[in-house]
Amino acid sequence: MSRTPLPIPRTATLVAAAVAACASVALLPPQAAPAAPAAPATSATSSTTPASVVADYYADAEGKTGAALASALHTIISDQDTVTYDGVWDALVDTDRDPNNSSNVIELYTGKSIAASDHGGNVGQWNREHVWAKSHGDFGTATGPGTDLHHLRPADVQVNSIRNNKDFDEGGSAVDGAPGNYTDADSFEPRDAVKGDVARMILYMDVRYDGGDGFPDLEVNDSVDNGTNPNIGKISVLKKWSDEDPPDAFEKNRNDVIYNDYQHNRNPFIDHPEWVDSIW
Ligand SMILES: [Ca+2]
Ligand SMILES: [Ca+2]
Ligand SMILES: [Ca+2]
Q1: Strand spans (E) along 122-271
Q2: How far is the CA of 217 from the centre of ligand 3 (A)?
Q3: 199 alpha carbon, closest ligand
Q4: Rounded mean pLDDT of the chain?
Q5: Centre of ligand 1 from the C-alpha of residue 44, in Å
Q6: Which of 276, 222, 218 is nearest to 246 (CA)?
Q7: Sign of the C-alpha dihedral, residues 249, 170, 215, 55?
Q8: What pLDDT is attached to residue 23?
Q9: What is the model's pLDDT at position 20?
Q10: Contact 175, 189 (CB under 8 A)
Q11: What is the spatial distance between Cα 81 and Cα 148, in angstroms, rounded to a whole number?
């Protein structure tokens, strides 16, 4: 009874160290994880949708390239349900939920985890960012491109306002309150962890909206002065970003949530990043 239990302090130390290690890993937002090597280009697996289901979804695009591929994808992804602009609030809580805190969402540009309930128009809140700026084609917030979850993300109110309706390009000054983001008079550069996400959202919009449904034909180009034309640039930079930042678990999960629970269509460039170079 008087013997000192020597192993215990050491064990306790190891346990404490292990707990601390786990805790520090758990606190890292998914975007901060070291970039994994790019998966094989043919991989179409995702966290909740079986690969065979994804393969079936794209059956009519199989073997196609270039304009034929874009056309086939347009037909496939245009078969969808829609949400209202008011419904977007709740949908974004599902699509962009913080995997480490189910009460929170992750903001696109800041990468910050914020209470899902803290949304609105005030400083410090999150609101609904149209990554394809809605003034580019002036489609507003009517049900359609203005409510398409594939390009809508939670964003800090002030950072959303700084991004405004700028095209995407590299360069500029650091954005206040959003480390890693840069902007100048005519363009916005998101942080590295979401560069590919932004590119794939824009390219989805280009293929999905081709002038039907009473909405304009959205098209990417290589300019940064598109104004209210239904265009967004720069495609050369977006292609580079898609290569540099391949789809991660968070981006694949939101594609699945939109497919399974909301619109029942998918972003082809998350499932098949190699199709970016085939079409553009
Ligand atoms: Ca610029
Ligand atoms: Ca990413
Ligand atoms: Ca188009």
Answers
A1: 126-130, 152-156, 167-168, 173-174, 182-183, 187-189, 219-220, 231-232
A2: 5
A3: 2
A4: 88
A5: 34
A6: 276
A7: negative
A8: 41
A9: 42
A10: no
A11: 10
Q: Which two tokens stand for residue 78?
A: 């245009």
CA of 162 to the centre of ligand 1 (A): 13
Ligand index nearest the alpha carbon of residue 223: 1
Residues with CB under 5 A from ligand 1 (ion): 169, 184, 186-187
Q: What does the block give as tokens for 150?
A: 């594939």
Q: Ligand 3 centre and the CA of 235: distance in Å?
A: 13
Q: Whole-prediction pTM value?
A: 0.83
Ligand nearest to the CA of 252: 2
Q: What is the pLDDT of residues 95-141, one digit of tens each?
A: 999 999 999 999 999 999 999 999 999 999 999 999 999 999 999 99
For ligand 2, the distance from its centroid to the CA atom of residue 111, given in whole angstroms, is 11
The pLDDT of residue 213 is 85
* Whether residue 93 has pLDDT greater than 70: yes
- Report the distance separating Cα 279 and Cα 200, nearest Å: 12
Give me the helix-helix angle, 249-257 and 192-208, nearest 10°. 30
CA of 201 to the centre of ligand 3 (A): 13
| pLDDT at 40 exceeding the cut of 70 | no
pLDDT at residue 12, rounded to an integer: 42
Alpha-carbon gap, residue 209 to 42, rounded angstroms: 25
Query: What is the rounded distance in angstroms from the CA atom of residue 119 to the CA atom of residue 25?
Result: 27
Give yes or no for residue 28 having a pLDDT over 80. Answer: no
